[in-house]
Design a protein that fits this description.
Blueprint: H1 7-21, H2 29-47, H3 52-59, H4 64-84, H5 89-103, H6 106-109
Helix pairs in contact: 1-4, 2-4
Length: about 120
């Protein structure tokens, strides 16, 4: 459960799985980034050419499991990349949010989906 598993716990689960299979040798930054991209695209493929209604129906059907599995694959690669490269994900997210807070000030970004360089 998300409210009972820390990021460090999740990293350890992934590490143990990979250690048991001797996969460290294959998990350099490039290969893990490729895996992350590949899995992200597999998640995207599920929604390709779907209307808003079709996506909602999909998320309320047995196909939701496909979404959950692809999302888990993405998360696996994020965790593995961080674990293999000593990246503290909590710190990285906090730092990125602080940076984005400057790029996307509330008074310009609230309710707006424009990129920071598109503000008038």
């Amino acid at each position: 459960m998300d409210n009972k598993t820390t990021i460090e716990d999740a990293k350890q689960i992934v590490k143990n799985f990979c250690d048991e299979r001797d996969w460290d040798q294959f998990h350099n930054p490039k290969e893990l980034a490729i895996g992350l991209s590949t899995e992200s695209n597999e998640l995207l493929q599920i929604f390709r050419f779907k209307s808003e209604k079709e996506m909602q129906e999909l998320m309320n059907s047995e196909r939701r499991t496909d979404v959950e599995e692809e999302l888990a694959d993405v998360f696996y690669f994020v965790l593995r990349f961080a674990q293999m490269n000593n990246i503290d994900l909590s710190t990285a997210v906090k730092n990125k949010i602080a940076k984005n807070s400057k790029k996307y000030p509330i008074e310009k970004a609230k309710g707006c989906n424009k990129k920071y360089n598109e503000y008038e």
